[in-house]
User: Fold this.
Amino acid sequence: MSTNPFLPEGRSDLPAQRFVLAALSGNRVVVFEETEKTIDGVSFQANWDSPSLNQELRGNSLIQVSFKYSAEDPTNVVIYGSKDGGSTWPEQYIVPVLGTVVDQTFWGHAFFEQTTGSDLRFRVLFNTDVLVNVYSYSVRVVERGAMEFFS
Amino acid sequence: MNGYKRTSPLQPAQDDPSRSKLSALSGGYRGDLAPHLIPPDSSPNLEGIRFEQGAIRKDFGARRLGSAASSRVIGIGEHKFITDQKTFERLVRLTRTGTSNLQLEVLTAGEWQVIDTSVEEVNDVYLSLASIQGILMIADGDRLFRWSESIETEIREDDFPAGNSIGAMDDTVLATVGGVPANGNLKVAFSTTISGTSTDGITLKVGVERNGVEIDEKTFAAPASVDPLASESWDDQQSTYSISGLEDADEITLRIKSIEANNPNPVITLEDEASALTTKALAPAAISDLYNFNFDLDVSGPPGSSIIADLQFSTDGGGSWTSSGVAPEYPIGTYIGETFDITAVGMGAGDKFRVHRTAVGGLAIATFSNFTVTYEIPPEAPVTVEVHGSNKTVDLDPKAGLETDASIDNVSTLAVIAGAPAARMIFPFEDYGVALRDGGDTQTFSWTVSGNMLDWTGEGSGQLFLVAAQSDPIDDLMSFATLGSGIGALFRRRSIMRVFLTGNALQSLGVVRWIERLGTDAGFSVQAVLGGVMFLGSDFQVYLLTEQGPQTVGTPIHQDLIRSLTGNLDLVDSSYDEGFHTYVLGIPEAGASSITRLWYFDVMAFHTQQKLVWRTRGIEVQRLATVSKL
Assistant:
């Protein structure tokens, strides 16, 4: 995994109009660049939420989320589970990921015990400055039947 | 109530195949579908994500450029221009001073440097910028500013080494450009002298090289002369070059490429076939006293007889003879092309050579033919050349070896353009500058003289008052974009008009109705992208406009925009990343006074896969821009 996947080797720039600038709060002008992991030195988080894992009007339990990834360095990815369509994320699983192996992907697994509801979702949270690419996922959802749930 | 009374025993896992298969995750944000209908590769909620090889990952970070400005940044842009054979790309930051004047800064060596401040005041609004034909045009709604730079130069002199002189083939002498040239102008001075005698003249070729690459060849020719004191000089010959990319420390070399001269006294051939006796005609002795005898010989007589051919010379005109020591013996027979080198010391004008024949063993008879003596004499004066790279400092040559133009000052002009309309937006269109004025009921579309961004009143310029509107009583002019060759789109609040070149110098541009009931309230959302122009429509839908008309591309975020865009749409801004073909739309959410969220649209995915891939990140932004170089 290259830290500069879009730039040919030996090139520090490309001729196109490709540097997006912004004047941020505090009257700071910044340039967005693929080599930067922070916004002017301040870390930021990124997350991606899954669509609803319930395909019918039935209750389900989220058992496991597996995801295929590669990472530039070892770090953690946090997988959250929600049973209410993302309103709350009560259950989380911190998945340690391997890194530094060029172009090699691994599987990470997150396990859940109490995420049962009618609108299950999971969230991938990147909360470190290490680049992790998540290529795909697989979930194990157990059907609980057409039922009413109480919190 | 027992909430679990209908709970079934735990069932074996029944994986949904559609949820288990591997797929890319680059479907982007989908705010237009119910969560259970969103495809597995898409997301109902994402933040700070970008897509790479079908994967999701954290979006790029951002690096700060220089120090923060002292006040809100109301304009960022790139000003490209060419002057003195150099291309400049100035990254410009525009702010408003405490006295409301326009302050222009340029990023120089990683830090913002204040270049100029206008005398005139500027409005506290998003500024519209356009870099057109060497001028950065800046519009604030009431004025049209121009900023331009020109370079003031002085001559810089650098010398070749003191006392330098080269005279042989491939000899070189070098001088170095000693500072950053303001342009590509270069003058090289050197002197040349050619001396010596010649029959056909002397030709000297001197190469002028820059960093080892020849940029010129100078030829110097001296006429034929037998005068040993003949000499031709070319003093302080200065040649002018225009070199793209001339830089500090460039090496300028003079190289002697060739010296062509004819020997004034070439090989002398003397002949006397009849007597085998010849006379040396010229005064100079042969080089190294070497003379070459050539002859054919037929020897006849009694068997066993022979002839001794003693090669002799006389240094007193034939009074006495000296053997050269070369005396071959020839038995009876025929000999063709006999040749011998002899040494004859002391020969001068009128002196002679001969072959003294002595019969051996009877009366042998020798008959010579084709008898010649050849020899070389030196020229009367050798050819010499001298090339001297000029040195003004020490050798006191009239000119310096190198002259370049050094920049001593950048002359900056930041001022309101006299005679220009009060412009809210400014754009390039073909060879024209186009200005829009959304002044209430005076909607003015103006353009410059072709090729002259400072002339808004001369022949070829013009303006149209677009008072007639079908979709809206006022229908303000909001933005403009070039759609194709000679075709532009004029965005109004509730309509889009087509602008075209008329071909008539007196009315260069024409405007006709095109699309009604669709325009934009966010003039700065208009952005030229791959294959068209994108903009935030007046219905909060995002469109891609081509010459065929508008296409909706913002459906996945349409509901989000309707929900969040409750504030001033003048604060919407946009940008376009040509490297990733990404349209960036910045919006102020929930009535914020600046942009709080960026939406990114993958234009290439739309063209190649017909997919609407959007992503987003929350970030507070004052202005957006795109530049080609940092």
In short: Chain A touches chain B through 71 residues (CB under 8 Å). The beta strands of chain A are 19-24, 28-33, 46-49, 59-71, 75-82, 91-97, 106-111, 116-117, 121-126, 132-145. The two ends of chain A are 43 Å apart (CA to CA).
